Amino acid sequence: QVQLVESGGGLAQPGGSLRLSCQASGFTFSMATMDWYRQAPGKQRELVAGITGGSSADYALSVKDRFTISRDNAKNTMYLQMNTLKPEDTGVYYCHRPGLIDYWGQGTQVTVSS
Questions:
Q1: Residue 5 CB partners (closer than 8 Å, separation 6+)
Q2: Cβ contacts of residue 91 below 8 Å, gap of 6+?
Q3: 69 and 82 Cβ atoms separated by less than 8 Å
Q4: Nearest to 48 by CA among 103, 91, 87, 6
Q5: Overall average pLDDT of the 44-62 stretch
Q6: Which residues contact 27 (CB under 8 A, 6 or more apart)?
Q7: What percent of the chain has pLDDT over 90?
Q8: What's the pLDDT at 63?
């Protein structure tokens, strides 16, 4: 079955960096568009970045030029490199595979605080 497992979250200072990973299994990863979402406390889940099977990427305006989404199809893994982190980047980050059935990971907590 489809499984998405995030890792790499934690505590970072403002201006710092973190790299998230999403290990995927149970489907043909190389052909799948994949996304990163996040949910801040008391807010709706929002799309952060997406990447096609051919590695064409798109970003939310709030993270453009700070975050980089990438994938390694040989490892069935997607990444989110987050630089110049801000307190408003705090939230639970989810790996997502869109489709006729949406699949979500369990999420990984990112906290940006001094």
A1: 22, 23, 24, 95, 105, 106
A2: 38, 39, 40, 41, 43, 109, 110
A3: no
A4: 91
A5: 96
A6: 2, 97
A7: 97
A8: 98
